[in-house]
TrEMBL record:
GO terms for molecular function: cysteine-type endopeptidase activity; protein-phosphatidylethanolamide deconjugating activity. Its main location: cytoplasm. Pfam families: Peptidase_C54. InterPro entries: Papain-like_cys_pep_sf (IPR038765), Peptidase_C54 (IPR005078), Peptidase_C54_cat (IPR046792). This is Cysteine protease. Keywords: Autophagy, Cytoplasm, Hydrolase, Protease, Protein transport, Thiol protease, Transport. GO terms for cellular component: cytoplasm. It comes from Euphydryas editha. Belongs to the peptidase C54 family. Cysteine protease that plays a key role in autophagy by mediating both proteolytic activation and delipidation of ATG8 family proteins. It catalyses: [protein]-C-terminal L-amino acid-glycyl-phosphatidylethanolamide + H2O = [protein]-C-terminal L-amino acid-glycine + a 1,2-diacyl-sn-glycero-3-phosphoethanolamine. Its EC number is 3.4.22.-.
Length: 473
């Protein structure tokens, strides 16, 4: 006081102690925050791990259920009438039309029949010829215990891969026609006796190896490769495919395969757009630089009704199966894909992929061919067919394509309907799609209508899953 100035000197001990407490409190807060964050991270990681584990368990359980569901058969019989011809991809089999004729007495082998031939001139090889022809078709089914598909936990395609398998069967039929010829027959009980049969056996095995269930450059047409390329169509492993998606997937795998396999150099896949075959586009893709012609696999996705098949198209579909260059139809019924190869009366004959078999290691020498061929043809009323389907043709030469162009219109236009010319199954256009200012309007969107194939149905009991035998009425 008394005029003297007083200075308050801070207590260093007190301040240091106070700062230390503050630092400890801050450190504890940081530590607690860190623990909370770590706890949250661990909880989040645990939740993600649980979800991942749950997904894997669900996928595994679903695969196990599908393996059981599609891994057994019921013994039933398929009836074939002796009075009606049986058509199988351009070949006709039935008894000779005479009072004393029988299905077994028709022995004139090798005569090809066309839908335009008079019935009296059509002779087949009898039921044995039909059996031999049918058994020779390559059969692709669900498989289990194959290597995991990239980006998934799937080791089986049971329950979701049926349309892909149907597409593989149609592509395999085209390759058989290309490398072995339409008249080739597989004789499982007959030993190889000469050089020609040995070469045919090698080609037969080579085709099946291309479809081996493994992600390998040696199996460029495998379901693994199809699923990988299907990602560009917005598909993931385990997704269902429709006929149009599979058609584009088949083209993609063949384009990729041709880069690594010279055997595909003279093969071209063309997928029709808007239910229209653009002839100029076919010529631009099918002609080689030296002027020669590539063999053509022509795929035509179509939509023949809204929810059900329009009955006016039934006769058109069966007439297409009488053409020698037809390689079948992939379709089926909703959520149940089938590969149609023939018909008798109003019933379609098909190969069914809904049978789960163990994977075969096709890279082993002399692997078994038995599970790649079916001995039991099945039939389905054409009225039950889903309207979404894809029709396939194999046109080996330029002359074959010209023949196709000249005659196909009479097969795809419904008969006896006044306005039928406005609604053919598909059309031909002389130009290129890129030059068409206004592409033809499609009656139904092919892709939008594939919702039928997108999800499984609990009520779909797969009543077609029988092992059937030949029975003559």
């Amino acid at each position: 006081m008394n005029g003297t100035s007083s200075t308050i000197v801070p207590n260093p001990v007190f301040n240091n102690s106070h700062g230390s407490v503050n630092q400890e409190v801050a450190a504890m807060k940081v530590e607690n925050d860190s623990k909370a964050a770590t706890s949250k991270d661990n909880t989040r990681d645990s939740a993600e791990d649980l979800l991942d584990l749950k997904g894997k368990v669900e996928s595994r359980l679903l695969s196990m259920w599908n393996n059981v569901k599609f891994g057994w058969t019921v013994k039933l019989k398929t009836n074939f009438s002796k009075e009606s011809p049986v058509w199988l991809l351009g070949r006709c089999y039935h008894r000779k039309l005479s009072p004393s004729g029988s299905l077994e007495s028709s022995t004139e082998i090798g005569m090809e029949a066309g839908a335009h031939d008079p019935m009296e001139q059509i002779y087949g090889e009898g039921i044995e010829g039909f059996k031999s022809d049918f058994i020779s078709k390559v059969w692709m089914t669900y498989r289990r215990e194959f290597p995991t598909m990239s980006g998934s936990t799937f080791t089986t395609d049971c329950g979701w891969g049926c349309m892909l398998r149907s597409g593989q069967m149609m592509l395999a039929q085209a390759l058989v026609c290309h490398f072995l010829g339409r008249s080739w027959r597989w004789s499982p009980d007959k030993p190889i006796q000469n050089a020609r049969e040995f070469q045919e056996d090698c080609l037969h095995r080579m085709i099946i190896k291309w479809f081996g269930d493994k992600s390998s450059v040696n199996s460029p047409l495998s379901i693994h490769q199809m699923v990988t390329l299907g990602e560009s169509l917005g598909k993931k492993p385990g997704d269902w495919y429709g006929p149009a998606s599979v058609a584009h997937c088949l083209k993609a795998v063949m384009v990729a395969a041709s880069k690594e396999n010279y055997e595909f150099d003279k093969l071209e896949v063309y997928v029709a757009q808007d239910s229209t075959v653009y002839i100029q586009d076919v010529y631009s893709h099918g002609r080689l630089a030296n002027g020669s012609w590539k063999s053509l696999i022509l795929l035509v996705p179509v939509k023949l009704g809204t929810d059900k098949l329009n009955p006016i198209y039934g006769p058109c579909l069966t007439s297409l199966l009488t053409l020698d260059f037809c390689i079948g139809i992939i379709g089926g019924r909703p959520k149940h894909s089938l590969y149609f190869v023939g018909y008798q009366d109003d019933r379609l004959i098909h190969l069914d992929p809904h049978y789960c078999q163990e994977m075969v290691d096709v890279w082993q020498p002399n692997f078994s061919l038995q599970t790649f061929h079916c001995r039991s043809p099945r039939k389905m009323p054409i009225s039950k067919m889903d309207p979404s389907c894809c029709i396939g043709f194999y046109l080996a030469t330029h002359h074959d394509f010209e023949t196709f162009v000249n005659i196909i219109t009479s097969f795809v236009v419904p008969q006896g309907v006044s306005s039928s010319k406005e609604y053919p199954i598909f059309t031909l256009h002389n130009g290129s799609r890129s030059l068409v200012m206004n592409p033809p309007n499609v009656r139904y969107s092919i892709y939008e209508t594939e919702h039928h194939w997108m999800a499984p149905s609990i009520q779909d009991s797969d009543t077609d899953m029988e092992s059937e035998e030949f029975v003559l009425l």
